[in-house]
Amino acid sequence: MSVTIFADRHIGTTSATQAVMLEAVGITAEAGERPLDALMRRAVPSSIYASRGTSAALPEAASEAEALAELRELASRNTVNKAMIGLGYYGTLTPSVIQRNVLENPSWYTAYTPYQPEISQGRLEALINFQTMVSELTGMATANASMLDESSAAAEGMLLARRASKVTSPVFAVDAGAFPQTKALLATRAAAVGIELVEVDLARGEALPEALFGVFVQYPAASGLVWNPKVVIEQVHAAGGLAVVSADLLSLTLLASPGSLGADVAVGTTQRFGVPMGFGGPHAGYMAVRSGLERQLPGRLVGVSQDASGHPAYRLSLQTREQHIRREKATSNICTAQVLLAVMASMYAVYHGPTGLSAIATRTAQMASQLAKSLVAGGVEIAHESFFDTVTVVVPQRAAAIVKAAHAGGYLLHLVDEDTVSVSTDETTTLEDLAAVAGFFGVSAPGAFGLAALEIGKLPEELRRTDDFLTHPVFNVHHSETAMMRYLKQLADRDYALDRGMIPLGSCTMKLNAATEMAAVTWPEFAGIHPFAPVSDVEGYLDLVTQLEGWLADVTGYDAVSLQPNAGSQGELAGLLAIRGYHLANGDTGRDVCLIPSSAHGTNAASAVLAGMKVVVVATTESGDVDLDDLRTKIAANADTLSALMITYPSTHGVYEQDVLEITAAVHAAGGQVYIDGANLNALLGYSRFGDLGGDVSHLNLHKTFAIPHGGGGPGVGPVAAKAHLAPFLPSHPLAQRAEHAGGFVFEGGPVSAAPYGSSGVLPISWAYVRMMGAAGLRDATAAAVLSANYVAARLRDYYPVLYSGEGGLVAHECILDLRPLKDDTGVTVDDVAKRLIDYGFHAPTMSFPVAGTLMVEPTESEDIAEIDRFIDAMIKIHDEAQAVKAVVWPADDNPLVNAPHTAVSVISGEWAHAYTRDEAVYPVASIIRTKYWPPVRRIDQAFGDRNLVCACPPIEAFADLG
Fold first, then answer.
1. How far apart are CA 660 and CA 362, in angstroms?
2. Confidence band of 600 (pLDDT split at 50, 70, 90)
3. Closest CA to 604 of 634, 649, 568, 636
4. Mean pLDDT to the nearest integer, 936-948
5. Out of 47, 234, 327, 545, which could bridge 605 as a Cys pair, Cβ 3.0 to 4.6 Å?
6. Distance CA 689, CA 649 (A)
7. Measured distance CA(291)–CA(28) in Å, rounded
8. Which of 129-138, 451-460, 570-579, 747-756 has the lowest mean pLDDT?
9. What domains can be seen in the chain, in order of their start residue?
């Protein structure tokens, strides 16, 4: 009996349909040549084309069952001990209704960043719930829609303080009580941009520097100490600086909020709100600011606006695509968020409500208090009496032995130093756990060691929370599982995700996220591991990391890979920091110029600035290639200061540049390094390698080429890969389990993420993808994706000009359709076409990037010919509709295009007074009658939302007339 290989499940087109598509593109194979290779041989420049895949490290493709069995074996080599280490990572109970209906639901995990808000109202509501939750718990005016993790949020807070403060001093004070991973990351980021960090023991009253632009406070401290930072904050304000407070969100149900203490910025993590530890991620960090700083917020911000009928509607506000608009002047290089995890955390708050969260926090504090009380009664000293969930215990010369004994007994405690151990309680802590832990310190649990004896420790009275929070109905009506299940279903029904149809977003690669790839994410052996667990507990994880690093190095032609960056933007930053570190180590302190083509991804320029580089823009030609003459001119003008060139290959314009080897050679000849942006690796994989193109370092997007779901705008993983000479400067981490990933100095491998291996919890997805595809499958996926893009271009070229193509008229994995002639001819805009596609049952392609007035289409390898043809037919029909507008069959101000999208309410309410019929509005083709997706709102007024900025849950009355 034949067995279907996984690649045949993943790739949507078959050999038969590929033959039809190749004929449409005009490709004929030579004798003995595979048809897909014939296409790639013509599309990819001969100077870089590899006729055979380079895959010495990749094993043969495994079946789905075999891959799961291997993952089970890797998982079995992880030990899930009871983690009481703390340091920002805690045990939590994910409500089953959230795990099943969000984390394991493709309606949530296959959605894209909500650039098309009309078809993203469900996840936008979930995110505005998240923002409301964060802003109210922190006492701040505005929160964004999540950050990548706590430590990088702290770094963004530091940079915000520098921007907003008028103080010229480069000094930023850092609390001695901050988490060690946060201190290390702040050091990496500060050194790159000339910020001077000064560590101050704030809780002990150590004096602040005389001049400073800000301060970072950990609240409660890493040691667990709860102290009042209000005086410190006032002192910083008096000096003209800003206060950034990293606060434990659960503790804020009991403790005074950072906002009430005068903080300007609050940062932290929402991990303990139902999101598993996952060996460090992914988790939704948070960031909130006081009134007046909302326009300084990095990342995504969801706001309330109104649609064409005046009904309230959600959309991304202000910074929607800041990096693409402002480039090197952007305030941050972060272009995404941790949406899926933010949704989980927000729904945890919705499900438990303010009373439930307070109860969880109270019980957590009671457990810590009882442990401390028992230890003191047994003659053991504790470091301080004021704490929330972490007890620091003083055990002279016994700390290591106690931690070792606890580990042997199934518990992970934090070894602070040879005399000190800290123990953190959480939602999962039991009385049995307390008794066991007390025993490791040589204390027998008293007879009264029971729930009735629990009491909250001595929290300072002036820090007790007295104000209400989460009063909006959404946090107070969905507490039964029935209500929660239905709420999640209602939100999912308002969205468009891959489970509905194709999302042809150019540059974003919305491919299949196979169920088998996702299976291991929720296994306890992967989900329940603390990122700072001892090496003996995580052998399976480390082997998975090592295998994946090796595979990625092989397929990219590099020598070393770090999986630590938890987004493409962080991978970019890590790669540029490696380049700068290399130059500094060689004594080339003046090499700080980064050349970037004008067509580059917007994050490139922002990342270069954050790495301490100066951006010089290189022109592109009319064909979309790098202008070689301008490149040579810019190299000559910056010969002594050239640090790097950042290019994307294939280019951001969706073509394979013929002169890439000449480009990289010119940079190397001038002493620079070449950074190849790996965003478009899915058009090259198996046919050429970045390292063979002259690349020195690249970031990859595991959430694009390697199948990690986008999750509505995150999680992502952006590994950085490099040649051997840059390997010592890749990210390290002070708490990493393996020596090659530990320690590190500034510009010699400092961390860029909070956890040693970044968002490790989703690495099994990409591991499974590569393991099941094998070298041949990865190669076929590349060719199938390129074929699909060229098929779209060939069939639509007569209706919409294809803006860029390579030699032979071929594109890479995406094509840019130029809608500017359509607008000039008919008045129909790119926005009209994008919104009208919703009526046809599609998510629009990428709008106006990299060229305004265009659509960038990327079908991916996962779509079958029927779905691709359905999209093509829709685009042709929309072109015909535009011609009807031109012919005044429909008025320019009243036609299906300008009024799109059409909601059910808009076509059934009142008299129909439009120049076109109801059927033409909502059933433009008969094939969608049975499968119609109904957008919940009409076209949204973007400008209204920016003029009237509201970024928290609107009152329930606002939706009264919508039923």
1. 61
2. confident
3. 568
4. 83
5. 327
6. 10
7. 63
8. 451-460
9. 1-76+502-786 (3.40.640.10)
| Those residues with Cβ within 8 angstroms of residue 131's Cβ, 6 or more apart along the chain or in another chain | 142, 143, 144, 145, 301, 302, 951, 952
676 backbone dihedrals φ, ψ, rounded to 5° = -105, 115
Instruction: Indicate the helix (H) or strand (E) that contains 646.
Output: strand 642-648
Are 786 and 40 contacting, i.e. CB atoms less than 8 angstroms apart? yes
Helix (H) or strand (E) holding 818: strand 815-818
Amino acid at 124: L
The single residue listed with the structure tokens 């043809």 is 869
Nearest to 250 by CA among 96, 405, 360: 360
pLDDT at 957: 57
329 contact partners, CB below 8 Å, separation of at least 6 = none
Give the tokens for residue 826: 């008919």
Cα distance between residue 519 and residue 497, in whole Å: 19
Contact 232, 215 (CB under 8 A): yes
Q: Concatenated DSSP letters for 737-792? A: SSGGGB--BTTBS--SSSSTTSSGGGHHHHHHHHHHHHHHHHHHHHHHHHHHHHHH
If one compares 19 and 747, the residue with the highest pLDDT of the two is: 19
- pLDDT reported for residue 32: 85
- Tell me the pLDDT tens digit for each residue of 887-935: 999 999 999 999 999 999 999 988 999 999 999 999 999 999 999 999 9
Number of H helices and number of E strands within the chain? 29, 26
Q: Which residue has the tokens 């030579």?
A: 30
Side chain identity at residue 234, one-letter code: E
| Contact predicate 866/788, CB 8 Å | no
Cα distance between residue 229 and residue 88, in whole Å: 19
Give this prediction's pTM.
0.96
**Residue pair 775/53 in contact by the 8 Å Cβ criterion:** yes
User: How much is the mean pLDDT over the chain?
Assistant: 93
Beta strands (DSSP E) in 190-347 are: 196-200, 214-219, 242-247, 265-269, 285-289, 302-307, 312-316
CB environment 834-862: b (16+ within 10 A), e (fewer): bbbbbbbbbbbbbbbbbbebbbbbbbbbb
Q: Residue 325 pLDDT > 80, yes or no?
A: no
| Consecutive H or E run containing 648 | strand 642-648
- Residue bearing tokens 């039991």: 430
- Which tens digits make up the pLDDT trace of 110-121? 999 999 999 999
Backbone angles phi, psi at 200, to 5 degrees: -135, 135
628 burial type by CB count under 10 A (0-12 exposed, 13-18 middle, 19+ buried): middle
Report d(CA 829, CA 810) in Å as an integer: 26
What percentage of the chain reaches a pLDDT higher than 90?
A: 87
- For residue 548, the one-letter residue type is L
CB atoms closer than 10 angstroms to residue 913: 6
Residue 803 class from Cβ within 10 Å (0-12 exposed, 13-18 middle, 19+ buried)? Answer: buried
**pLDDT tens, residue by residue, 688-745:** 999 999 999 999 999 999 999 999 999 999 999 999 999 999 999 999 998 776 554 4
For tokens 């930053």, the residue is: 573
Helix (H) / strand (E) element for 575: namely helix 568-585
Bridge partners of residue 721, in order along the sequence: 561, 698
Give residue 745's pLDDT: 43
What are the two backbone dihedrals, phi and then psi, of residue 719, each rounded to the nearest 5 degrees?
-55, 155
DSSP line for 496-527: --TTTS---BTTT------HHHHGGGG-HHHH
φ and ψ at 67, to 5 degrees? -65, -45
DSSP letter for 30, please.
Answer: P
Q: Averaged over 535-547, what is the pLDDT?
A: 97
Pairing of strands 142-143, 196-200: unpaired
Q: What average pLDDT score do residues 194-223 get?
A: 97
Give the tokens for residue 385. 């009496």
Q: Are residues 508 and 713 in contact, defined by beta-carbon separation less than 8 angstroms?
A: no
